[in-house]
Amino acid sequence: MCATKTRDIDATVAQARQLAAAGAAIVRIAVDNDHEVRAMAAIREATAGIALAVDLQENYRVAPAVAPHVDKIRYNPGHLHHIERQKTVADKVAWLVDVAREHDCALRIGVNCGSIAPEFLERYPDDQLEALVQSALYHCSLMDDLGFTRFVVSLKDSDPNKVVAANTRFADARPDVPLHLGVTEAGLPPEGIIKSRLAFEPLLARGIGDTLRVSLTLPNEVKHEEVEVGHQILDDVAAGRFISVPDFGQGLNIISCPSCSRVENESFVELAQHVRELTTYAAAHRITIAVMGCRVNGPGETDDADLGLWCGPSTVNLKKKDQKVGTYSYSEVLPRLREELDRLISARS
Fold first, then answer.
1. CB of 78 within 8 A of CB of 297?
2. Longest Cα pair distance anywhere in the chain, in angstroms?
3. Which of 15-24, 65-74, 302-311 has the least mean pLDDT?
4. b/e sequence 145-167, b meaning 16+ C-beta within 10 Å
5. Is the same domain home to 257 and 208?
6. What is the span of the domain harbouring residue 160?
7. Which CATH number belongs to the domain containing residue 57 in this structure?
8. Mean pLDDT of 164-185
9. Looking at the predicted structure, is the pLDDT value of residue 59 above 80?
10. Do 59 and 110 share a domain, yes or no?
């Protein structure tokens, strides 16, 4: 996925070519506003020969404007309720299918742990994993009813064990549907690479998964390393080389989203690195800290973390679970994070 600002056409084209040169078969670009939508025509013209997927974010209504310039459209079922609330989800999906048919596009149904549709969270209040799977299955049934077959599904979580469980359940229920594998917010390397391996290896070994994405928190200039890691995992699985990390995830767990075009301050990547350095003293404690780079993923995908930071253009929101602690500048938030971490460790002791 391109991490550049989509409206910066030259930078986005350069990164799309960088990712393709590293071996990416599909390059995903996010659109979040009219400026980014308008940029897609020029990006498409300059990236001939590269398969492009577009991420509609929270605004599915932009689909007709970007569909002529891409090969695949990704929508998140958990974001469809944000606009045009008077319309049913089924009607919105039917409209997206019409757009895809008209412009010869495939669709990806991208279900994420931090943005599951409220309807399914209410239906399965004590089993978020089942809510994730059932949301995906429901949207597959909508595709079936519409007679549309050019679609793929992804079920992502920041916990590799949940990624394995969700994709296994889904594959058992719908073995006919192609799956795109991913660990959302895998985080900084090397931990993010280990998480990706722990998720992908058992699934690939069972023949589950048709495409995959490694999502690491990396600066733009080395974003292509995600693709290289993905190919290395595929090569290792094909050769029967697997990792074993028995105690991984038993202590401090830092999750951070991959840098992408939605990041509103590039200091986010540096902040994630500083959080890891600051919290090394808490390595033995079973605590999850989430560092999110934007307003799309930030609010919801920090709710399950013991401590969460989601970053805006000039400030960072600090949370404890789903409760907001306060809003701080990038320079102020690290001392406040340490205070809250110390309180949490003390309370648990």
1. no
2. 60
3. 302-311
4. ebebeebbbbbbbbbbebbbbbb
5. no
6. 9-238
7. 3.20.20.20
8. 97
9. yes
10. yes
